[in-house]
Structure formats: structure tokens, C-alpha cells
Amino acid sequence: MRRLIFTLAAISALLPALAGHGIVVMDGSDNTPVAGATVIGKSGVILGMTDSRGRIDIDNLNNFPVTISCIGYEQASADADSDTLLLATSTFELNEVTVSPAERPVKRVICYAREYTSGITGRDTMQLYSEYMTEAFIVNGKVKGYKKGDAKPAVRTKRQYARIAKEGLDSIFRPDAQDDITALSWFDLMATLPDESITLTEAIKSGAETDTVPGKYGPKLTYRKKNNLLTVTTDMLSDHKNHTWSPFIFKLFGLTMDMEQVDMSMTFADTGNDSLSVYDMVCGTYNLRIIGRGKMFKKVFDTDQPVEMNAYLEMYPIDITNITVDEYKELKSEASPIAFQYPANLQPLSPAILRLTAE
């Protein structure tokens, strides 16, 4: 009987940590829900995003305090006693735009980007924080000598920090390109810039603050005007049944997976125009959640169990220069490193990532 009482007391002590807690994230200026805010736990693991009501449920109280980030708002933190968190709005400045003549049809777009990724098995956690300087080349319409694939941002400079928590031991290090943990990066899959003008819906043109464009199984595009910004969010899984996609091509490389969330948000300065382009872009944010089942995941994580992976990428245009086709070809052939540059509107790192980069 005494052993039973002791066991029940131990379970009771653990219940608060296991029970979890819900937080609602609101706009501090008008008390409307903030959807799509990324929430990072105390250890640096990505816990998910707020839903359309601004809510997220934290499964374990040991994840507190959490850090909440959303473009257009100052970063904030919440502890386990918080029920509602009000985010303060932030301001953004865009670089001056110079319209180019026809003989300079290629836009060279330099961006700063940073990526948080984490992978979790039943007992172990892996985290990778990456910073990039990227280069992309964008044209309007058809230009002879230009390859459309060059609109995809390419990494020119990179640095990474990794952490492995395994069987109660922490290892923090700077990974090499050959290290398996670099497979946690999903930059090449997520990073995208608008390579053509984005035309707004009639509702947004008429002054509405929100609008949606349906996909096959749910909203595919969501428009939101807030704090002099206009954000266009694309749900890449809205046309997939049960909101899950298992790409066959990845199976060929041992990367069998179920994609459960693939969201891309591009935030622009609200210029009042009927269309937007990369010139107006303030930031892009990209969210990915997958369950990895293939042998490559199991090799990296040294497990026989599925691996839950979350990735969050921010991309900020730093400089846009109009160049000739010959200049474009020369820059492409060089592909030289680009020194790190940081946007003025860059949010601070979460405490867990700061500790990681300080090691």
C-alpha cells in the first residue's frame, strides 16, 4: 500500500508538466487573433504555429518559456502562467526602388536568410540553426539568355550551428558539410521569391483587410492587411486530401515522409497598388512540418521510430540591383561568396538559439 501511495504521488507531481497549456496570441493594437505565429520552446525546438484563432496548445509545461515570432510584430515570450499574449506591432523600412530601363532587364536580388530546424524522436532531439546570404535573378516576361531556374535563391555564404541532445547529454558544435545533421536543412525546398507580380483579389483592392482563395480541400491563399503590411500566405497542401502529402520522389532517396504542413508567407509593404512585386517585399517566412519514415531519417537519428521534423525559414531582401544579361551571366559563372549583411528589421534570436550560437 505504501508503494502504491508513493507511485500515485509521483504521478501526481508529474501531471502538471505533462498536462500542457494553451496560449492565445493577439494583436496588441486591436485584440484580433494573430494566426501563423511561430512558437519555439525553451530548448529551441519548434513547437508549431498559432491557428486561425491565434491559439497554440503546448503539450508539456517543460517547454516554457516559449518565444513567439511573427512578421509585423515584435518578438515576445510567454511563461506557463500566460493565457493571452499581446504582441506589439513593429515598423519596417524598404530600400529605395529605381525602375530600370529595358536594357537592364534582370533583377539581382540579394537576401539574408536564417533557418531554424529541429528533429525529435522519442528520446533524442537534434537542432540546426543556419544563416545564409543568397542570390537570385528575376526577370519579367521572357529574356533571351536567361534561365528561369535562376529565380530560385541560391546560397552564396553559409554558417551553421548544431545541437544534439541524446540520452541526457548535450553536444553543441559547428557542423561540416559532410555531417549527417546538415540533412535537417530544408532551405532548398522552402526558399522562394516572387518571380512575377502578385495581383491582389478584388476584395483586397476594395479595402477588405482579409480574403481567401479556395483550394481543393481548404483555403489555398490567405490575404491579410495589417500594420501597413500585406501578407499573402499559401497553403501548399490545400489540394491534398487529409492535408498530407507523401512525395514519391523522396522515397527513391530513402527520404520517405509525410508532409503535414507546408506554408509560405510573403509580406509586402502595403503600397496601395493593385499588384505587388519583389521590390515591395519585406520578408518571406516558410514553415514545414513532416514525419520522416525513410531509412535516411533513421540513419541520421539512429532510431527505428518515425522522426518529427519542423523547419522555419525567414528571408529578407537586402539589395535589388538591375543588371544586363551579360552581367547576369558573369555573376552566375562566378558564384562568389557574399559577405553577411543584416536587415534593420531583423527580429532578435530566441534565447535558446542565442545560447547555441554563443558556444
Provide a short characterization of the protein structure.
The chain has 359 residues and is α+β, with helices and mostly antiparallel strands. The chain is 15% helix and 40% strand.
Number of helices: 7
- Based on CA atoms alone, the radius of gyration comes out at 22 Å
Q: What is the H-and-E element order? A: HEEEEEEEEEEEHEHEEEHEEEHEHH
What percentage of amino acids are in beta strands? Answer: 35-45%
Across the major sheet, the strand order is 11-10-9-8-19-18-16-15-14-13
Helix content: 10-25%
Rounded mean pLDDT is 86
Q: Tally of extended strands?
A: 19
Major sheet description:
10 strands, antiparallel
Question: Termini, distance in Å?
Answer: 49 Å
Unreliable residue stretches: 1-18
Structural class: alpha+beta
Shape: globular
Please give a structural write-up.
With 359 residues, this protein is an alpha+beta fold. It contains seven helices and 19 strands. The chain has helices at residues 2-19, 187-190, 202-205, 248-251, 295-301, 325-334, 351-358, and strands at 21-27, 38-40, 46-49, 55-58, 66-69, 76-78, 84-87, 106-120, 125-138, 154-166, 169-173, 198-199, 210-214, 219-226, 229-235, 257-269, 275-276, 281-292, 307-323. The protein has a ten-stranded antiparallel β-sheet, with helices on both faces. A hairpin with a 5-residue loop joins strand 2 (38-40) and strand 3 (46-49). The termini are far apart.
